[in-house]
Amino acid sequence: MPNPRHALPVTFLTALIGGVVFKLLHIPVPWLLGPMLAVLAGSSVRKNLFRWPGPIRNAGMIVVGYTIGLSMTSAALHEMVRQLPTMLLMTVLLLLFCAFMAFIVTRLSGNPYLTMLMGSIPGGLTQVITLAEETEGVNLTVVTVMQVVRLMMIVICVPVLVFSPLLGLPQHGGSAPEISHPGVTLGSGDIARLALFAGVCVVCAIVGNRIRFPTAYLLGPAIGTAVLQAVGFQGPPLPSIAINAAQFMIGTYVGLLLKPGELPRKLRLLTLALMSGLLLVLGALGLSLLLTRLEPVSMSTALLSLAPGGMDQMGVMAHEVNADLSMVAGYQLFRTFFIFFAVPPLFKLAIRLIRRK
Questions:
Q1: What is the pLDDT of residue 320?
Q2: Cβ-count burial 22-50 (b if 16+ within 10 Å, e if not)
Q3: How far is residue 251's CA from residue 66's CA, in Å, rounded to a whole number?
Q4: DSSP line for 126-155
Q5: What does the pLDDT look like over 9-49, one tens digit per residue?
Q6: What is the tens place of the pLDDT at every residue in 167-207?
Q7: Which residues cross the membrane (predicted)?
C-alpha cells in the first residue's frame, strides 16, 4: 500500500515534536534520539503514514562528516602522529575488550555474534548505526538499542567519574583551541568559505558512494574537509542549529528503519545492554590507568581520550576540567577512523567464516 501524499509532513511534525520534548527534558543528543523514538512510535501504529527519503538522511550525514573533518586540526593531527603507537595499542585493546563482551552477551542473549559485536563497538551513535545499516546480516534494531543504552551509560557515568575527586582534576590543561562552537554565527566571508567546503563535501560523498567507500556520506566529507584544511583553507564552524538539523535528519531516518517486533527477548536484551555498557565504562577506566603509565597525562585526560562516547561530548568535558584538548580530540578521531577503515573488512571476514561454519 503506497504512502499518502502527506506522509512526509506527518513524519516531519512527529519527529519535530520528539526533538522538542527530548530537548525540554534535557535528554542527551535530543535531536537525534527524540525524532528517532517519536517516529518509531508513530510508525508502529500507522506505518503507511510515515516516509523519510534517503537523500535527506544523506544530507545530514554530510554535515556530520564536515564537523568531523573540522576537528582534524593541526594540533589534533600532530598529537595523533606523535602518539600513533600508543593510540593503536589502546584502540586495539578497547576493541578486543568489546569483542569479548559481545561474545559473553551473545551466549546470554542468543543473538548472533555479529549483531552483538556491532552493538558493542565504541563508536559514535550516528556512525555505528550507519555502519550497521550497510553491513549484511546485522539486526539494526538490536544494534540501535545496544548503542543507545551504551550512550546513556557513557553520558551518565563518564561525567561522574571525570568531575569526581577520585580522578583528581588536572592543574594544567592542554593548549589546543576549543573544538566546539555552540554559539557561532556566520559572516559573509564565512559563507563563501562554507560554500567551497560544501561543494567539496558533496563531491567527496558522491564519489565515495560510487566507489563503495564505507559510510561514504560521512567519511567522504570528513576526509575532503581535512584535506582542504591541510592545504591552508580554514573551514568555518557550523552554528548549533545546523548540527541539530543534521541529527534530526538522521534520527528520523533511523527511526523508520527500526522494527521492535524483531527485537528478541526484550527485557533480557535491555538488561544485558545495561551490563555491557557499565562494563565498557569500567574497561575504559582500566585502560586509562594504563595510558597514564605510558604517557605523562592526567587521569581525566586519559579517560576522556579513551571513553567510548562522541568526540563532541568528550571535548566539552575536556574543556570544563582543563584537560588536554588536542590529545582528547586526537584519540577520539583515531578510534573513529580506525573503526571505519578497519572494522568493515574485519566484519566481511567474520561473515565469510560464519557462513562457512
A1: 61
A2: beeeeebbbbbbbbbbbbbebbeeeeeeb
A3: 18
A4: HHHHHHHHTSTT--HHHHHHHHHHHHHHHH
A5: 999 999 999 999 999 998 767 888 889 889 988 888 877 78
A6: 654 444 443 334 345 555 555 667 888 889 999 999 999 99
A7: 7-25, 61-81, 87-108, 151-171, 191-209, 216-235, 241-258, 270-291, 333-351
Query: What's the confidence (pLDDT) of residue 179?
Result: 39
253-291 as b/e: b if 16+ CB within 10 A: bbbbbbeeeebeeeeebeebbebbbebbbebbbebbeeb
Contact present, 295 and 139 (Cβ < 8 Å): no
Q: Of 302, 342, 100, 67, which is closest to residue 182 (Cα–Cα)?
A: 67
Burial class of residue 21 (count of CB atoms within 10 Å of its CB; 0-12, 13-18, 19+)? middle
Q: How far apart are CA 75 and CA 171, in angstroms?
A: 21
Q: What does the angle CA 299 – CA 89 – CA 124 come to, to the nearest 5 degrees?
A: 75
Cell 536484551 found at = 269
Predicted local confidence at residue 122, as pLDDT: 77
Grid cell, residue 296, equals 605523562
Look at the chain and count its residues.
357
> Domain ranges in the chain?
1-51, 55-356
d(CA 94, CA 290): 12
Q: How far is the C-alpha of 211 from the C-alpha of 306, rounded, in Å?
A: 32
Distance CA 284, CA 299 (A): 11
